[in-house]
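Notes, p. 3: input format for complexes.
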Amino acid sequence: MAKRFIATAYGDPADVLEYVDHQIPAPAPGQVVVQTRAIGMNPVDIKSVRGQTGSDASKLPMPIGYEMAGTVTAVGDIADPFAVGDEVIVYPASGAYADSVLADVRAVRPRPAALDVERAGGLLLVGVTAADAVRTAGLTESDVVLVHGGSGAVGAIAVQLAVQAGATVIATASPANHRFVRALGAVPVSYGEGLLDRVEAATSTPITAVIDTVGNDEAIDASLALVDNPGKIVSIAAFGRAADGIVLVNGSTPESRRHRAEAVDDLIAGAAAGTLLTEVAATFPLADAASALVELEHAHPRGKFILLP
Ligand SMILES: NC(=O)c1ccc[n+]([C@@H]2O[C@H](COP(=O)([O-])OP(=O)(O)OC[C@H]3O[C@@H](n4cnc5c(N)ncnc54)[C@H](OP(=O)(O)O)[C@@H]3O)[C@@H](O)[C@H]2O)c1
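Output follows (309 residues plus NAP):
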């Protein structure tokens, strides 16, 4: 019998999470069972447990977690592209906070040996989001792009993809992360009061595009002051500011889904080859998922939080 975390209600993780037995059916053709080795944690996990992304009672009990890396333990059909023992990455996964998951092979990719299991487990949700934002912004060599949150899990990948697209990149971060942001190829500036002045001082040519991973009014107001066309301000987080004409991406449109699907293989290849830097900030036992979720909510660590079964 497999085990997984479910939320029995919306609320504080310590009150609503339960680690329960879970019967995984024999995989049908086109499905595999994957034993979990590393689970990527994301802000959406805690937001969904708290009911901040919707509080539909019919979705309870709700499995948690969208991505993991692990080992194939059963396949639905020998014609499927995976075999027992294969090391794989699953994204999107349904209920990744578990010791095993049933996955559609379309969501499964081989994990290259050069990509360690922890970084692999936390790569794709943030990776495809960053890739979607960069594609949506349509960045080229002639762009000067401001990335809000360039030290974050999504932002650090967005900075690297924007640099790879040839753009000049300015990125906000805490002073403690400025060296890191510079190493990714961006000019770092601190967020907080005076942000607009610091961004203007950091570039001799005008900002032509923005990628926002922070979503607060400071980031959006500065962006609107810097860029004439709000259609060149792409945010993954400022969903309350849609009326300003900025572009919001979350995988809900066909174009956004296509950007994300097309990014997967390159992200894995880049992370394995070392041309895409990703970091693990901390690991936690899967059993401590509730306290790790609360820590993630407050920490904004540089790199990913990973759960280990
Ligand atoms: N739309 C989508 O598809 C999608 C997908 C994934 C994530 N998201 C959302 O995107 C956001 C970022 O996710 P993430 O995983 O990248 O988070 P993260 O790793 O915690 O990164 C947070 C970033 O924001 C910066 N930051 C923290 N407080 C700030 C403040 N007061 N003002 C300005 N910047 C601040 C941090 O800088 P320092 O650490 O240097 O202080 C860091 O660069 C979350 O809200 C998440 O839910 C959306």
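The mean pLDDT is 97.
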